[in-house]
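Need residues for this backbone.
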């Protein structure tokens, strides 16, 4: 099949005089223009090779530079049917103060604003002055007060700290949001400006105080850290030092477990700091400190409104926690506990045997003590970690456990929650994980132990205190 020749498009006007033409005319009837010498326009724009510079014709055909339009210059209505504002767009930021580009100069005549047609591009400072007083650097385009546009809840965090901004200075001591860097954080840990939840300070805590140190971590599975600790030192009446370590584990099934552990650790520590310098025997002081901690936790149950506000979705019952503490006072080592948090003894000379200094208040321990199960069978049961003793208003009967020892060699006391000993339960396992230089570097030792639990899975909050016992005495025993 022979292809057809393309037909030339008929002209409607004479190129010379603009008079109308009729189909088939070879010459203009008005001026005699020879239409055969005028090339026909192409039917379509030819393809342009990539990289070829093209001088596109102007849209209006006048040869003048084309104009650019910006938001706010095109009439229209918003979703509520109101007219869109026609105010000039502000470009507040470092780029706005730079020299205008040729495109910006070309579009200056079409801008709506204080500049006259043909005026140069306004700088960022001029745009802020045109928008009126009180406009802050970093605001989104079109969000000037009274513009009717949506104003974002928080300024651009990249511009919030810009030196040219006019954001109000936060009050002294106010905690700023880590997300928007502009809003204040309320007591519940949320930004009052953008609502972003803030990282909790208790997610990871470390403290070193002379010869004692403690580390607490949220772990890898829990959404918050419900453990707490306190480390301190004081002097006995004879001037010899007394070093204290308290570790508490909030009961997750109870209300406000984090508050319970914090109140217990603080109260027990304060009581020991008051009673030991007065000459109270360290074991009696530990017993009384546990009672004081229990009273502090019990007082939390008298705040039902606060409990509901703290966590409205949690089953409302009495706040509760476990406690374990150790005091190194002269040649005496005293431990006290309620619940399943533990204390271990690890001698500096690893040739000596390590030992566990506490007995759990737990279902498994009761089964073993009653001779109903072996230790392996009891701890393999799903009920093994159900505690039978705790601090809290709903505790059946509070029985503080205390014990005193006179070690015959220097060593380290490891005071910890089950978030650690679940990964190093036997004394030999704990001694193997604890660094050999823990007595001289207690903080490093605590960090290594917490890291061991996290490497093992971090299924629970992890808290450990490392308390060196540096006074060698003969005649180890317990009272």
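Answer:
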């Amino acid at each position: 099949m022979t292809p057809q020749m393309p037909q030339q498009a008929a002209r409607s006007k004479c190129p010379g005089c603009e008079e109308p033409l009729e189909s088939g005319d070879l010459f203009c009837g008005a001026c005699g223009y020879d239409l055969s010498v005028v090339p026909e326009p192409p039917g379509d724009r030819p393809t342009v090779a990539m990289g070829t510079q093209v001088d596109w014709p102007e849209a209006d055909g006048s040869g003048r530079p084309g104009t650019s339009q910006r938001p706010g210059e095109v009439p229209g209505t918003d979703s509520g049917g109101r007219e869109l504002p026609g105010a000039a767009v502000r470009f507040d930021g470092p780029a706005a103060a730079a020299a205008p580009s040729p495109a910006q100069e070309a579009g200056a005549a079409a801008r709506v604003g204080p500049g006259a047609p043909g005026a140069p591009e306004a700088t960022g400072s001029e745009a802020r002055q045109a928008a009126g007083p009180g406009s802050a650097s970093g605001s989104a385009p079109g969000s000037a007060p009274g513009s009717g546009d949506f104003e974002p809840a928080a300024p651009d965090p990249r511009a919030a700290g810009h030196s040219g901004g006019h954001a109000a200075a936060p009050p002294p001591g106010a905690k700023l949001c880590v997300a928007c860097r502009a809003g204040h954080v309320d007591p519940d840990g949320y930004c009052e400006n953008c609502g972003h939840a803030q990282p909790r300070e208790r997610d990871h805590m470390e403290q070193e105080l002379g010869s004692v140190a403690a580390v607490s971590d949220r772990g890898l599975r829990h959404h918050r850290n419900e453990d707490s600790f306190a480390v301190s030192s004081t002097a006995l009446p004879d001037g010899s030092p007394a070093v204290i370590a308290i570790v508490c584990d909030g009961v997750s099934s109870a209300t406000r477990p984090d508050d319970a552990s914090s109140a217990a650790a603080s109260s027990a520590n304060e009581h020991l700091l008051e009673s030991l310098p007065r000459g109270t025997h360290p074991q009696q002081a530990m017993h009384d400190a546990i009672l004081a901690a229990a009273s502090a936790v019990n007082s939390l149950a008298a705040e039902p409104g606060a409990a509901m506000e703290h966590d409205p979705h949690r089953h409302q019952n009495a706040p509760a926690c476990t406690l374990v503490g150790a005091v190194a006072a002269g040649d005496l080592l005293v431990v006290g506990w309620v619940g399943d948090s533990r204390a271990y003894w690890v001698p500096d000379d690893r040739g000596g045997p390590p030992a566990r200094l506490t007995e759990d208040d737990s279902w498994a321990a009761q089964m073993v003590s009653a001779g109903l199960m072996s230790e392996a069978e009891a701890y393999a049961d799903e009920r093994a970690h159900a505690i039978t003793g705790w601090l809290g208003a709903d505790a059946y009967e509070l029985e503080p456990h205390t014990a005193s020892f006179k070690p015959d060699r220097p060593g380290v006391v490891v005071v910890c929650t089950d978030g650690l000993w679940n990964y190093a339960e036997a004394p030999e396992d704990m001694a193997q994980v604890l660094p050999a230089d823990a007595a001289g570097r207690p903080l490093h030792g605590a960090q290594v132990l917490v890291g061991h639990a996290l490497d093992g899975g971090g299924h629970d909050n992890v808290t450990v205190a490392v308390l060196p016992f540096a006074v060698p005495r003969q005649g180890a025993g317990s009272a």
